[in-house]
Amino acid sequence: MAVGGGSLSLLPGSLLLLLLLGPGCARGGGGRYQAGEPVTLYVNKVGPYHNPQETYHYYRLPVCRPHTVRHKSLSLGEVLDGDRMAESLYQLSFRRNQSKKVLCDIKLDPQQ
């Protein structure tokens, strides 16, 4: 009985530790941004709202794209959800206002 009671008493402490460490592990470091620090913006799959099985990678669409598409490492849940995240061309800094900027100019033909 004491062994079972002892293992149960560790459970609340373990949960508290996970809750405290969870947000810090999100960025692989301190979990906090400093003012002016770059923030990576990812693009994901795109598809119609009423048919979630029909999805396309964002960069398969006629949009501005980097020369080399760098994909984000995904968690198991993201893979199972069908996510396909890649870094975008947007350059953002934490707590810095951003004015309008042109990423690129694309000429679309009628077939696109």
From TrEMBL:
Superkingdom as given in the UniProt entry: Eukaryota
Signal peptide interval: 1-26
Protein name in UniProt: Transmembrane 9 superfamily member
Keywords, alphabetical: Membrane, Signal, Transmembrane, Transmembrane helix
Location, primary (coarse class): membrane
CC annotations in GO: autophagosome membrane
Membrane topology type: Multi-pass membrane protein
Pfam family, one: EMP70
Role, per record: Plays an essential role in autophagy.
One BP annotation, GO: protein localization to membrane
Family per record: Belongs to the nonaspanin (TM9SF) (TC 9.A.2) family.
Coiled coil, from the record: none
Subcellular location: Cytoplasmic vesicle, Autophagosome membrane
